[in-house]
Amino acid sequence: MTDCFDVVIVGAGLAGLQMLHQVRRTGLTARVLEAGGGAGGTWYWNRYPGARCDVESLEYSYQFSEELQQEWEWTRRYASQPEILRYVGHVLDRFDLRRDIQYHTRVTALGYDEPAGRWTVRTEAGDEVVARFVIMATGCLSSANLPRIAGRETFAGEIHHTGHWPHEPVDLSGKRVGVVGTGSSGVQTIPVIARQAAELYVFQRTAAYTLPARDQPLDPRLRAAVKADYAGFRERNNAMPTAGLSRYPTNPSSVFLVSAAEREAAFEYFWGLGGPLLLRSFGDIMSDPAANALVADFVRGKIRQIVKDPEVAALLSPKQPIGCKRVCLGTGYYETFNRPDVHLVDVASAPIEEITPEGIRTAAGRYRLDVIVFATGFDAMTGALLSIDIRGRDALSLRDMWSAGPRSYLGLGVPGFPNLFTMTGPGSPSVLTNMMVAIHQHATWIGDCLTYLTDQDIDVIEATGEAEHAWGLHVSETAGRTLFPSCDSWYLGANIPGKRRVFMPLVGFPAYARRCAEVAAGGYQGFALTRLDRGRLAREHIAPSRSQPS
Ligand code: N01
Question: pTM score, two decimals?
Answer without folding.
Answer: 0.95
